[in-house]
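Why show two proteins at once? Because comparison is the fastest way to build intuition. When a single record is shown, students tend to memorize it. When two are placed side by side, the eye starts asking what differs. So, the first record is below.
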Amino acid sequence: MSRAFTASVVLGVAMAATSALTGALTPTVMLSQQQAQFSLDQMIPAAFADWAVDASIVPLKADPERQSVLEKIYDQTLSRTYVNRAGERVMLSIAYGGDQSRALQVHLPEVCYVAQGFDMLKVGDGALATRYGQVPVKRLVARQNSRNEPITYWITVGDKAVKSSFEHKLQRLAYGLSGKIPDGMLVRVSTIQADAGGAYKLQDRFVGQMLDALQPRDRVRLLGAVAQAG
């Protein structure tokens, strides 16, 4: 038997094994299909504590081209502005995608705001303390002309809240190795004000009161395992 023939046989076996392994490791089970269906619009109350929807102000919207991309990424989106009796306003945006595979990943606010013409003045990590557990969050400050917008957001991949692109990829990989395709949620709150520290405190209070108004299963959807443990 010639060396060339032996090498070709070994190469063929290796390629077949690689193909089989790739197929075995390709996730096929959609977590979203194993869960009860839900509606963001029904899940998040229009009024809670002393907050109520202010229909006169709509949170930042993407341009038509970017909106078409977002519609491919997300299955559901919710955008509202709430106002309390003191006249304080908080903008809430939630996006849910049932397929967080490599092709359909969450769209980070750092990218979205800059694409809309904002300057990103701050990008940092934070922790949002709630009665249901501590949530890892990102704290941003975006500015466009005189509009200064402090932003808090977090992402869930499957049942875990993550705060970085690296953690997002690790969580997605962990699910993929078990043959599962996770769903994902991006929750963003923001206010238009100059004082970022005061804005974050207001946003944290708003989120805490919103969580108090949700059903336990819906808190888990927004917070992941943090809410299950909290």
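Second record. Ask yourself what differs from the first in the token line.
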Amino acid sequence: MDYIDTKHVAAELRNRLRTEFPGVKFSVRKGTGTASAWISVYWTDGPCTADVEELTRPMQGSQFNGMEDRYESTDNTVTVTVKGRKVTGKPLVDGINTHRDVSDDALKAAAVLWSKAHDGIEPPTGGMLAACVVDGHVIQENWPPQQMWQIASDVVLPQRWDAAKEQAAAQAARRASAHEAADEGAEGLNLQHTAEDGTTVTGTRLGDGAADVLKLHGFKWHRKNQYWYAPGSRDQAADTGFLAAVAADLRAEDLTVTTAQPEATPSA
């Protein structure tokens, strides 16, 4: 059986985290010295530790048995890319530590929730705070910083992460719909405007002439989302005159364009 070096496992883990939790910045570090077979993962807010460990646990080749003070081998295998070649083998990883930080913004939101649960009074800065219930979650008796941290971890961050996932799913659905609409057109071009994505064009093909037209109108290519977008158009009302001009110039290149916004009628 092949053995996968810790650094290659760390690189693969970094890619999987990026794919599984888009929008969250992870720091994945390989240990040094006696900890060279360990990996540490750091991030702020976002998913809970349990969700991240669902991804990290299968990538450990060993686990520490504290009762017997020794490492025990797992049956895990991992597939990684090494110099452009897929390799499957046993990961040379003794353990993966996870560290989620809580942002100051989340702690401030936690303090607001604590205040609402206590008739509007500000959280004390000292002394032990009694146990309480915040948004249906039991918050243990603790010092103020620890209570704010628990509220942020148990209430604020899960709510924010659920909202972020719903937003990402909605954006993915809109993009899929836009691509389907583009595929139905003769040349596959779809010009649309939404508040969240701004003015975008999907369905272009290499060499179809659309790129030169779009660049003249200030569009830029979004490599990750694979569409053209007009900078500064997000969270703005649709500029129907701009949409009409772009559509007209694209059609002048014998391209078929469908639009998701009504085009402005040029004045006489």
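One difference worth noting in the second protein: Residues 14 and 148 are 30 Å apart (CA to CA).
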